[in-house]
Amino acid sequence: MQPCGFFVEQGAMAYVLHELLTESAARRPDAEAVRLLDQALTYAALEKLSNQLAHALIEIGVVPGDRIGIYLHKSPAAIATIFGIMKTGACYVPVDPNAPGLRLAEIARQCSFRALITSSSLYEKLSAAAVDDYPMAAIFFIDKSPDTALPAPAFSFANSLPSQPTAPPTVNVIDQDLAYILFTSGSTGSPKGVMLSHLNALTFINWACDTFAISSTDRLSSHAPLNFDLSVFDIFAAIKAGAAISLVPEGLSAFPMQLSSFIQDQGITVWYSVPMVLTMLTRGKLHERDLSRLRLVLFAGEVFPIKHLRNLRRVLPHPRMANLYGPTETNVCTWYEVGQILENQTTPMPIGKACANMAVIAINEAGRRVLAPGEEGMLYARGSNVMQGYYGRPSESAACFISNPFASGRDEKMYCTGDWVTIDEKGDFLLIGRKDHMIKTRGYRVELGEIEAVMVAHPAVNEAVALAIPDEAIGNAIRAIVTVDDGNSINATELKRHCAEKLPPYMVPEEIEFCDTLPRTGTGKIDRQRLLRERAMAAT
Fold first, then answer.
1. What pTM value is reported for the model?
2. Of the residues 147, 173, 199, which one is the last residue of a structural domain?
3. CA angle 187, 190, 192 (to 5 degrees)
4. Which domain does 93 fall in, by range?
5. How buried is 537 (Cβ within 10 angstroms: 0-12 exposed, 13-18 middle, 19+ buried)?
6. How sure is the predictor about 527, in pLDDT bands with cuts at 50, 70 and 90?
7. Helix runs in 127-225, H state only
8. pLDDT by residue (tens digit) across 170-218?
9. Do the beta carbons of residue 328 and residue 182 sit within 8 Å?
10. CA distance linking residue 524 with residue 520, whole number of Å
């Protein structure tokens, strides 16, 4: 067996992410690297464009350690932008292109963007005041510069890049340097930036390429937006292997028939997304598609309801499937390969065991390591995959880490994932629920995810969310919001009766609301905060 991170056709080991592209471009210059429908770049073209952008950024004053904002929809040019930024020694900071301009302004304020790379149409979403408040050295447009007055010198790719050198710039970048900052929702309402180094990402990418045998014959889908950590696998695992990337057009996942056609027509071999997208895909008449090339299906981001996963396995019996687990702060730290799913199984898939060169342990409330099946504890991660901290928030960063009590004679830090887990007889970790989804009601500790799993187990229910509504008398009242599968019907009384058969009385929701769809965040997860805000406003 080859050591983790080395692959026969991949040549020398890269120590920073952008070297992956340079090495693959040298090996496979004419091979397709990335495609969005009829737009495509070869490896040679991607390398050239990223090098020219790097030189243009250096020319306007970008130096190692700077933060460069990316406010773009996914495209081949956006992928070149990522590599061009890293080749300067700066780190890229992607912002959800569907987010309002004020969110970009807040992230720009926190990171002090040296430059911004965007498109003319997206720039129109920004208020002039918001941009003026956070001056930058330059704004680059992947298309044409807008005709309006701009708060910084403007450059378009077409006008500014062709005159730049095509060889990579000579910049000293080491694996401990920041590669990117991904912003997640903060508990204070202000987004916080997760700082990830080249080493953090490469630890995961090297493991993934080895474990899933990613090779130059593969074509990986890229469904997640650039600001979502799932995109790290799509982009860098493909580039490391010299494989092709097919960018999934925005909004396509809402149309199962078109999505299944896309997988067939693009010849996708590796698919990675949140469970919701795969659940939708099962409605896309997969039996009518030729998906013989699809060999690997990965999912992460949320718990995959077992009845939906069983249905996916039924309609896609041949591809290898795996559940990848890890918060943005750890990339992916555990994984579990999905095998046979029994018809009577109601519990979710395990999150499995640690990936190579990573370690996870669970610590119970008494401070002891969880070793026995059924015992519960908080999950901690350590290793070179774990983030450097939150940008500009040293106190919050420090609060997320503890000294490893089991590391005798040295001060080793472990990151608290915020997830309660247990282990099974095979030593696989089982996810119980989020620390912040644990509530108290009537004096009992309740995991909202357990209630949701029971509701989704009902044949008529498609999705379910349990919310904690503050109540002076009992601590928290439980309110559920569910969607129902097409062609099925159920009322609140029937669903409460179903819950009462599997849950103690204090866990049965006091109210159950039915709706057609549940709101989603830009990464495809259920937007719990929006649901809570809407219910709070309705109550006032």
1. 0.84
2. 173
3. 80
4. 32-173
5. exposed
6. confident
7. 128-132, 157-160, 198-211
8. 999 999 999 999 998 654 456 789 999 999 999 999 999 999 999 999 9
9. yes
10. 5
